[in-house]
Amino acid sequence: MREPLKREESAAFGVPKSPRHLGVHAIDVAYNDSPVPNSPFRVPVTEGCDSSRVRAFGPGLDGGIANKPNKFTVETRNAGTGGLGLAVEGPSEAKITCKDNKDGSCLVEYVPYEPGTYDVIITYGGQQIRGSPFKVPVTDTVDPTKVKCLGQGLGNNVRANVPQSFTVDTSKAGAAPLNVSVVGPKGKPRKANIRDNHDGTYTVSYIPAMTGRYTILIKYGGDEIPYSPYRVRALPTGDASKCTVTVSIGGHGL
């Protein structure tokens, strides 16, 4: 196939043509119908790569947990042949592993060691893919088994119509949402009032509206903590206005 040469601003010429097939191509170059030295030139053509066609997705790009494997998938099947580059930058180093799925995709795992915001950088053929660097928030490891509760509101001296409270200590359990619900004698659940003390502890309060058995369900990070659900019984509340006081001195009442 003959292709005209396009003269550039310098004395060089360019060929505005891209090869359509892989393999070794022979290029004949002539000037004034005479072959130039070393023509024809044999040029191997290999498959190129397009980083814009690489796709990355998975929970490990939306958020992560410190000291735990966080996973995502990279698909390169429609992007040609190129080298895949992976890096995780942030408050700490991160261990990265990559498993080839043999289908044009790979599974990536990384383990950061400190909470914070990390940049997950993905390149293909030396170019960053679409969306890279990915900003990933990493939180502490959550362990609901390390949550502790204490206080009168979980004890045996709960009185109906009297405000009750107890403390939930999450200081060693990592950062996660706390949820407390109280189910009364009629089986209707109600959310308790939760106050963050900003020291890793929470004060939980509720008012039992009637006497009877109450079930207190406590979840941290979506999972129940040890000893949950707690079961307490609300006892009748005494009325001081109906009490009489009798004082006797020497056997004589006043």
UniProtKB/TrEMBL annotation:
Key words of the record: Repeat
Database matches in SUPFAM superfamilies: E set domains (SSF81296)
Tree of life domain: Eukaryota
InterPro entries reported in the protein's UniProt record: Filamin, Filamin/ABP280_repeat-like, Filamin/ABP280_rpt, Ig-like_fold, Ig_E-set
PROSITE patterns linked: FILAMIN_REPEAT
Filamin repeats: 1-45, 46-138, 139-234
One GO MF term attached to the UniProt entry: actin filament binding
GO biological process: actin cytoskeleton organization
PANTHER family: FILAMIN-A (PTHR38537:SF8), JITTERBUG, ISOFORM N (PTHR38537)
Family the UniProt entry places it in: Belongs to the filamin family.
Protein name stated in the entry: Uncharacterized protein
Provenance organism: Scyliorhinus torazame
